[in-house]
Write a structure and sequence with these properties.
Layout lengths: L21 H11 L3 H4 L2 H9 L14 H8 L4 H5 L1 H24 L4 E5 L7 H4 L5 E6 L1 H10 L7 E5 L7 H4 L11 E5 L8 H14 L5 E7 L28 H4 L5 E8 L5 H15 L4 E8 L5
Parallel strand pairs: 1-2, 1-4, 2-3, 4-5
Antiparallel strand pairs: 5-7, 6-7
The protein binds S-adenosylmethionine (SAM).
Length: 303
């Protein structure tokens, strides 16, 4: 989530709490005792639940985000004041949905996994009737997720995950055979909170183990934003810090010979012509989008 590109919201929204849900929610959130980085999951959840009222053309039609927020009873008004972040989340959600739909159109029985899933529910949009889905995050987040978004069919499952520890591919039981069906991995709003060496290890683990044809969709921010989370309207108050960013998109595929950058997208497209013009203006200095998405592919060949 990059620094603000959108002026301050014109008028304050009404409070977005579900009064009857507040007691239960306070319990759930209080019991979860989420540390700084996991607590950022409320930021995109708020955008998916309420962002369409500000950016109806980017509405993601999330059928559960509003209910989850109501059950949590979290006051997310401050996150909705940060309109550029709301727009960025809606833009990336739409783009990831489209990338997921394209992938499962080609591989209708494949496995998709959301690494650092927070309280997202991509399977509501990506269920083909025969594919499989894994939602994984740090244990405190999965404990919070379990009562709110339990797996709803045998083709869905949950798992605890710590991406900062190598070996997660095997621990999640992801396929390792070269002949296996390709997998789709999503990792949004996660890697910017890890140190660069850990991000490279995550990408390398994907490259080493994923069957050819697999995809990983991740969001990236410019390296210029590293260390600047305190200035971010939504992330700053959580105490989380941005630790990884890119200087060039080509750095992603350079991590491992099996990786290739299939697609890069800039959030500038969500801001229309003005955003695209600003992106072109900044690009020589930043070397990468201020904020964007990368789709990485895995080739065949030696590990
Ligand atoms: C901004 S939230 C994004 C959540 C979700 N992907 C979304 O877009 O709504 C950041 C997420 O990254 C997860 N995360 C941070 N460090 C992680 C790690 N080492 N392993 C797994 N998940 C991690 C957090 O627990 C949190 O759910």
């Amino acid at each position: 989530m990059p620094p603000s590109l959108v002026p301050a919201r014109p008028a304050p929204p009404a409070a977005r709490r579900a009064p009857r849900a507040q007691a239960a929610s306070s319990c759930l959130l209080a019991e979860a005792q989420l540390p700084a980085v996991p607590s950022t999951l409320l930021i995109p959840l708020a955008a998916r639940a309420h962002g369409a009222q500000y950016f109806p053309w980017l509405a993601c039609q999330d059928a559960v985000a509003m209910q989850v927020l109501a059950a949590l009873g979290a006051d997310v008004s401050a996150y909705l004041d940060d309109l550029s972040t709301v727009l960025n989340v809606l833009w990336r959600t739409r783009a990831i949905k489209e990338l997921g739909q394209e992938f499962f159109a080609r591989h209708p029985s494949a496995l998709g996994a959301n690494l650092g899933c927070g309280l997202t529910h991509y399977f509501q949009w990506l269920d083909t009737g025969t594919n499989h889905w894994l939602d994984a995050d740090l244990p405190p987040v999965m404990a919070l997720r379990k009562p709110l978004l339990p797996p709803q069919c045998p083709r869905m499952r949950h798992a605890d995950l710590d991406l900062s520890q190598t070996g997660w591919w095997q621990r999640l039981g992801l396929p390792t055979q070269r002949s296996a069906t390709p997998v789709l991995l999503l990792c949004e709003g996660v890697l910017m909170y890890l140190p660069p060496a850990q991000v490279h290890a995550v990408l390398a683990e994907f490259a080493q183990h994923a069957p050819p044809g697999s995809r990983m969709v991740l969001d990236v921010m410019t390296r210029q934003a590293v260390g600047c989370a305190a200035r971010h309207a939504s992330v700053g108050p959580t105490g989380a810090e941005f630790r990884w960013g890119v200087g060039r998109m080509a750095e992603l595929a350079a991590v491992h010979p099996r990786l290739h950058l299939l697609r890069e997208q800039s959030v500038a497209e969500g801001y229309g012509w003005a955003g695209i013009a600003m992106d072109m203006w900044w690009r020589p200095w930043l070397g990468a989008p201020l904020y964007g998405l990368a789709t990485l592919g895995v080739r065949g060949g030696p590990p």
